[in-house]
Design a protein that fits this description.
This protein is of the alpha+beta class and about 300 residues long. The protein contains 12 helices and 8 strands. The strands form 2 sheets. A 5-stranded antiparallel β-sheet has the order 1-2-3-4-5, with helices on one face. It has a 3-stranded antiparallel β-sheet with strand order 6-7-8.
Length: about 300
């Protein structure tokens, strides 16, 4: 039999070797501690169970400090008992004010998704997002590298029945490499933008679109490519702002027409859009014609 005292209350402890019961008495109040040795030959693996009657836990700290390490005992003692907790609440650790927000929830989800091997795609993605180019250009390059563009090849992968050939040149399967680098229209667009180096430089002849984009962004001449993309976007934006669409007068319908043609294919595409005086779309149409004409003739 042994005795120990806390700050205000003195307990007398009695341990039964057969039952493993440690009983503390103080003015007739019993506080029972069940001691069980988890390892047959290990005194350190000692588990303590405390039954607290009427919230009385005096002398419990003495037992914890005796049987457990100091830091472990202090952590247990810092845990508030149920009766001492006045009001519980839910907190969100991702915000300083401990309140949930969609922004912090999205960031947490992105950290989980990006950190997961299932969704992680290797590559120097920072070169794309740090490029000094319009956001729509960077977003397009990102979608191109991730295979998010609805090409005929990607649609077939998602069980959409369609013709795989490119609808413009009808020469190859429409995938990311074809529509951006191999199609005749795409090659003409690169040359018209002053970026023929993308087509003729051996550093940009990788087997897939993602590797080509990464090579363009990491190559020393990528600054020229980005500058051309940015300047072309700015010039087209300035030209587009010169003419603005206006609503027709009351009782009138305005028809806007656009025509494009590919000389080598011998076909011309036509698009029409009808809007009322409130700017609402009433009808629209697209059509391919087996003839070659200028844009002025086609729109006329």
């Amino acid at each position: 039999m042994s005795s120990s005292s806390s700050a205000k209350v003195r307990f007398t402890w009695m341990f039964d070797d057969q039952t493993g019961l440690l009983t503390g008495t103080n003015d007739g109040t019993l506080v029972n501690f069940f001691l069980r040795n988890l390892g047959p030959k290990s005194e350190k693996s000692l588990c303590i169970y405390l039954l607290v009657f009427q919230g009385i836990a005096c002398g419990f700290g003495f037992l914890l400090r005796h049987f457990l390490a100091g830091d472990v005992a202090e952590r247990i003692l810092e845990t508030p008992l149920v009766n001492s907790v006045c009001q519980d609440k839910v907190v969100w650790e991702e915000e300083r004010n401990e309140c949930y927000s969609v922004k912090s929830g999205y960031k947490l989800a992105m950290r989980y998704i990006i950190g997961s091997d299932k969704y992680h795609v290797a590559g120097n993605w920072n070169d794309i997002w740090k490029a000094q180019a319009p956001h729509k250009v960077r977003h397009l390059l990102w979608r191109l590298c991730r295979g998010c563009l609805p090409t005929r090849y990607r649609l077939l992968e998602r069980r959409v029945e369609c013709n795989l050939n490119c609808p413009v040149c009808d020469e190859e399967i429409e995938d990311e490499i074809h529509i951006f680098f191999r199609c005749a229209v795409a090659r003409d667009s690169w040359c018209a933008a002053g970026l023929s180096m993308v087509l003729h430089n051996d550093a940009y002849h990788q087997s897939n679109a993602m590797d080509r984009i990464f090579a363009m962004c990491s190559n020393e001449s990528s600054a020229i490519v980005v500058h051309k993309l940015q300047s072309n976007g700015e010039s087209r934006t300035a030209e587009a702002n010169l003419v603005r669409w206006e609503k027709p007068a009351l009782g009138w319908v305005k028809c806007n027409v656009d025509v494009a043609f590919v000389p080598d294919s011998g076909r011309t595409s036509v698009g029409l859009c009808f809007r009322n005086n409130r700017g609402q779309v009433m009808a629209g149409m697209t059509q391919w014609q087996q003839t070659v004409m200028s844009s002025v003739e086609g729109e006329a």
